Amino acid sequence: MSHSQQLYELLGDGSEINIVCHNNPDPDCLASALALGRIAADAGIDERSILYSGQISHQQNRAFVNLLDIDLQPFEAATVQNRQSDSLLAFVDHSIPGTNNTVPTDTDVDIVIDHHPAEDIDARFVDHRDELGAAATILTEYVRTLDIDLDTDLATALLIAIRSDTLDFLRGATTEEYAAAGHLHEHADPEMIRQLSNPSVSGGTLDAISTAIDNRRTDGAVLISHVGRTTERDALPQAVDYLVRLEGVQTAIVFGLVSEAIHISARSPDPRVHVGNVLHEAFDDVGSGGGHHDVAGGEIPLGIFADYTSDDAQVLDIIEQIITERLVAELNLSETTED
């Protein structure tokens, strides 16, 4: 029995489904959740919810939710802890309770569909393909195989998700991404794709990227920078995507203080560096970090510094020193030198 058939059979036993996105969901997670909801509806589930934690702050993500009118609800632990036996819990674009989500770690999960590197995934149904460039590629396969109605909004969402997670097929794209995109293209809305591909950029995001440029430090082909404190969490991946294009740079890592946590974003087209492993090894004892060999992220709770507000500049200096030292040690760099 194929993955799609196994999933459909499991959905047929449920009365409701809660589809949990990872923290601060991106287009790949949102489109995958939307597609799974459509498949669940076709299987006869009337009660369907898409839940998330964190913020939807990236300008593309906000436009994605607004233009496609995706019904999102804040995640609450009670929703999954007190559910009935025929109430299904699904993860898309992530896989482990408590890792990049606020789901209690002892929660039983029914469905996991993911493409990020992970170990010890435990669920009744698991489709984990870390060789793929997007979770939306898997959901597109399901939609095709199960002959689910592919309306314009769903096709547009899945196509944008694949393009976004692969940087328009320049990062981690496989033949499966190209095949999925080819199928979706004829059903998608070109004008909506244009709007979603070119959203406006906030002043805060631009300021954070500017700060990352000013604070960059390089050692050979490695660049490390920070944005200081910012309210624009999604400025970090945008900054690192920009800085990794700097001539001579093969690995770029940008971190910053957002609310009460340190966020980290990394990129590395260098086949000698696995940035997912770098962030995991450097910060697993104080937070979380991981991802693919070329794309990764991490989050570290601010901990003892969370209530220290009398001298924000000093806190930022301490954070910069500690995070940079850990990265330098894990990357086996001699020292970082400012450009």
Structure, described:
It comes from Halanaeroarchaeum sulfurireducens. This is Phosphoesterase RecJ domain-containing protein. GO terms for molecular function: nucleic acid binding. This protein has 2 domains: 195 residues, Alpha-Beta Complex (inorganic pyrophosphatase (n-terminal core)); 136 residues, Diaminopimelate Epimerase, Chain A, domain 1 (Roll), CATH 3.10.310. Helices cover 39% and strands 20% of the residues. The protein has 12 helices and 13 strands. The strands form 2 sheets. The protein has a 7-stranded mixed β-sheet with strand order 11-12-10-9-8-7-13, with helices on both faces. Strands 3-2-1-4-5-6 form a 6-stranded parallel β-sheet, with helices on one face. Strand 2, helix 3 and strand 3 form a beta-alpha-beta unit. The longest helix has 19 residues. The protein starts with a helix and ends with a strand.
